[in-house]
Amino acid sequence: MLSTAQLCNYSNEGYVFVPELLPLAEISAVMTQLPELCTLERPEVIFEKDSQTVRSLMNIHTYSKAADKLIRNQSIIDPVKQILDSDVYVFQCILNLKRAFAGDIWQWHQDYSTYLIDDGMPANRLVNVLIFMNEVNEFNGPLMLVPGSHRGEAIMNNVDDTTTPYPIRALNNRQVASAIEVNGVVAPKGPAGSVIFANANIIHGSASNMSPWDRALISLTLNSVENKHRGSVRPDWVVMNNFSPV
Ligand SMILES: O=C(O)CCC(=O)C(=O)O
After folding, report:
1. Which residue from 141, 133, 130, 126 is spatially nearest to 210, judged by alpha carbons?
2. 176: Cβ below 6 Å to ligand 1?
3. Does ligand 1 come within 6 angstroms of the Cβ of 143?
4. b/e sequence 10-42, b meaning 16+ C-beta within 10 Å
5. To which H or E segment does residue 197 belong?
């Protein structure tokens, strides 16, 4: 569970970072499956622009038992229930690989803009749980967040489907610069098993990975069962339609 100070941090800053929260054995159980998972011929396997490097494994928990076990760990589920004061279901669960030398950027964005416009999400009662599957350092493309930006409105930009193979409602440079001017920017770093709990409206993104170290990260989005999405325009291998509580 999160302490009062951590809850306060989440509410004020829009995120809280908890180093070394998950057991390494559960992380390794997923990581040892990666070579096999990346060769699956499924739409969930998304490639970088080079068409060779795997960028993401969408909803990995539906075809990896180890990933399914990891994301049900009570050390992450309980804090999310605490934050939302509700039971939750898995809305999305994406493993972003950000491979050494080849992993590309995630443009600056707010997840909630997409949930609102494209997925029929009634309200922002979601938490994005970002699980470090490798050590994250300053060189391998750490996730950057703009603290406090979750309090702004969800910006309704158009979908950018050209910068990377994953379409995203990216923010423009002016929007990002003004948010950072007011709030600053952070990039939590730490060993595998560390976790960021983030508000779905916080502005975030990550640079490309020019380092020799992979930076795999699971982005698990949990939604309140009282806030079920009402029908997404995105396919069900992108957005889950299973509302069972975890
Ligand atoms: O893996 C990353 O660096 C980006 C993740 C992200 O933007 C997200 O989960 O919405």
Report:
1. 141
2. no
3. yes
4. beebbbbbbeebbeeebbebbbebbeebeeeee
5. strand 195-199
Cβ of 99 less than 6 Å from ligand 1: no
Give the sheet arrangement for strand 144-145, strand by strand: 106-109, 204-206, 144-145
Over residues 48-71, mean pLDDT: 97
pLDDT at 156 over 90: no
What is the architecture of the domain spanning 4-227?
Answer: Sandwich (2.60)
Domain boundaries, the chain: 4-227
Backbone φ, ψ for residue 126 (5° rounding): -125, 150
| pLDDT level of residue 154 (50, 70, 90 thresholds) | confident
pLDDT digits (tens, 9 = 90+) for 1-59: 999 999 999 999 999 999 999 999 999 999 999 999 999 999 999 999 999 999 999 99
